[in-house]
Amino acid sequence: MTVLHELKAAGIPVAVASDNCRDPFYGFGDHDVLEVLNMAARIAHLDRPWENWPRTVTTTAADLMGLPNLGRIGVGLPTDLILFKARNFSELLSRSQRDRTVLRQGRAIDTTLPDYRELDDLLHENSAVETASIQTKPASAG
After folding, report:
1. Which of 15, 29, 92, 128 could in theory staple to 20 by disulfide, Cβ–Cβ 3.0 to 4.6 A?
2. At a CB cut-off of 8 Å and minimum separation 6, what does 99 contact?
3. What letter does residue 74 receive in the DSSP assignment?
4. What is the CA radius of gyration of the chain?
5. In 3D, which of 22, 47, 17, 48 has the Cα closest to residue 33?
């Protein structure tokens, strides 16, 4: 993270990502790309100029993964995007932005977070997979 500014200045495409999916490796994730950008801004000091840093989680990230239709807005492209009430990047990164509007195929979707109890079955499924994985690992020679 310490050389992102230098890499970008050298013309090397820079993307940031996170295991932000509430799995065994990071149990607190919520698939929030803004949180990833916000964390990167703080950790890697992605401050001024603000204008290009959001590309690290949008267009540049999509390009590096070979997904040319994602992370951008344009005629003929999917209308999947997130609208925030912030007027500038400082406001965007200063608050949680939980009041965002998410568009899928051009239509606002319900972004109400589920009650954690609704996720219990998923958690138990993941625990079963973790347990099975641990039980099938060969014992270390010792």
Report:
1. 29
2. 85
3. -
4. 19
5. 17
Mark 46-71 as b/e (b = at least 16 C-beta within 10 Å): beeeeeebbbbbbbbbbbeeeeeeeb
Q: Which residues pair with 104 in a beta bridge?
A: 107
Q: What is the pLDDT along the chain (142 residues), one digit of tens a residue?
A: 678 889 988 999 999 988 878 777 777 778 888 999 999 999 988 877 777 889 999 999 999 999 999 989 999 998 999 999 999 888 999 988 888 999 999 999 998 888 888 878 876 765 555 555 555 555 555 4
Where helices occur in 10-140 by DSSP H, the ranges are 33-43, 59-64, 89-94, 120-136
pTM for the whole structure: 0.73
The whole-angstrom separation of Cα 31 and Cα 26 is 11
Retrieve residue 9's tokens.
């200045």
Residues 6+ apart with CB under 8 A from 102: 81, 82, 83, 108, 109, 111
| Largest CA-CA distance found in the chain, in angstroms, rounded | 62
